[in-house]
């Protein structure tokens, strides 16, 4: 739900809108696939999370754990992850379609 504030000064009218922080978020999340990553050799893996070829976040995740949501505009996106160290593995990009006020999960197989 959008919340808008209207401020009236002596001259202009100011209109400011923001998203309700308690309402639904349009976002992408990442997860190391539990079916294929059980024996990765480390309990936590540092990842760089990329959406539409733009670095968006760093996360340290355990197998099966879901990353924090990364807000995106509704629509079609390309998402991938890279291990967070020089020469680390890069997962192939996946196309993700995210409807308004929903979240989509990018599963990262090992």
Fill in the keyword field for this structure:
single chain; 110 residues; mainly beta; four-stranded antiparallel β-sheet; three-stranded mixed β-sheet; 9 strands; 54% strand; disordered N terminus
- Measured between the Cα atoms of the first and last residue, the distance is 38 Å
- Uncertain residue ranges: 1-18
Instruction: Give the SSE string.
Output: EEEEEEEEE
Strand coverage percent: over 45%
SS-derived structural category: mainly beta
Strand order of the largest sheet: 5-4-7-8
Give Rg in angstroms: 18 Å
Describe the secondary-structure layout.
Elements: E1 2-8, E2 13-19, E3 27-32, E4 44-51, E5 54-62, E6 70-71, E7 75-83, E8 94-98, E9 103-108
Parallel strand pairs: 3-9
Antiparallel strand pairs: 1-2, 3-6, 4-5, 4-7, 7-8
């Amino acid at each position: 739900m959008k919340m808008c504030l209207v401020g009236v000064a002596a001259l202009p009218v100011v209109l400011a809108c923001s998203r309700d922080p308690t309402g639904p978020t349009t976002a992408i999340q990442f997860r190391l696939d539990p079916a294929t990553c059980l024996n990765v050799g480390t309990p936590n893996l540092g990842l760089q999370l990329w959406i539409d070829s733009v670095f968006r976040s760093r996360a340290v995740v355990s197998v099966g754990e879901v990353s924090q949501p990364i807000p995106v505009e509704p629509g079609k996106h390309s998402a991938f992850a890279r291990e967070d160290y020089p020469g680390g593995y890069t997962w192939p990009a996946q196309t993700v379609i995210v409807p308004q006020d929903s979240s989509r999960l990018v599963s990262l197989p090992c």
